[in-house]
Each structure stands twice: as C-alpha cells, then as structure tokens.
Sequence to fold (180 residues):
Amino acid sequence: GHQLSEKVIGENLRTVIEKVPGRLIVGTFASLLSRVNQIISICESLGKKVAVDGYGMKTNVEIAKELGYIKAHSSIFIDVERGHDYPPEKVVIIGTGAQGEKRAVLMRIAQGEHRFIRVQPNDTVMFSSSIIPGNERTVQRLMDTFYRRGAKVINYRMLDVHAGGHAQAEDIKLLLRLTN
Fold:
C-alpha cells in the first residue's frame, strides 16, 4: 500500500542523493511539501547544501520553515546563484517543473535559459512526482532535452520500485508503447 511505497521511496531517495556523482536537480510540486521536506532532511544528514528555486517552491519552503514543519538547520540552505561556490556533489537543487511547465525551473535549466544553472555532464535530474495524465509527451521531451545535454535522468517510477530491477522493464515497455 501507500505507506510501504512512501517508505521505499524514502530509502531510494536517500540512495540516489547519496550516490549521485555530481549535482542533483530535483523537480517536484511546490505543494508536495512532505517530499520536499524528506529530500531536505536527507541532504542535511548527508552534509549536502540545498538550493530551493521557483517562486512557489521558495514561498512554500519559507512558510514551512517558519511553521517548524521543515526543521533543517538554516546553514544547509544556499541561494541558487551560489551553487558554484560548492563542489557539485555537495549541491542539491529543488525546483518546480516536473510536469514540463513552460516557465518553471526545470524547463529553464533544460533549455539553457536559467540565469544561474547550466546543465553539466555529471548532473542528475530527478523527476520526483508522477506525471499528470496529458503531460506525458511534454515531460518526455523535457527528459530528452536533459539527456541530450549530458545529464542523467531519474523518474519517480525508478524511485518507487520494490525490487530494484523493475524500473528498466517498465521504461522499455513505455518506450515501445511510445514508439508504436
């Protein structure tokens, strides 16, 4: 059920955040504060810095900090323009746009239009929310753009795997369906 799934996602998130070779760029809903909080506390426990980007995301995280929902120490948060002051493997960027929204953080990064973030070869981009039906093609295009720029892409399906190996099979099935 859902609880098991959340636990599995939590463990897999930790593994991803711990193992990525360079920067991690996470796209999720600004409203999904439980996920954002989970990512932030994992980063804190691993000694990574977190840059929050996107208007709604920044606002929500600020409010959640003020209300004591996000308890991470303020020293782990950095401004997105200061990301380059740290080794890439210490930086996690949490932004909006996992649905492929036009002006959101992920789209701007993918298209080279973000003021401070350029895709680097060791970057990993994680799409941390399931795709709203109807957005599949847009999100797929966005993922492809990241791939072409040399980033690795992880989607939510790969995080929510109970037995490690299923994601690839599912992705291949999806690819076949899209191709046909």
Remarks:
- The helical segments are 2-19, 33-45, 55-66, 105-110, 136-148, 156-159, 166-179.
- The radius of gyration is 16 Å.
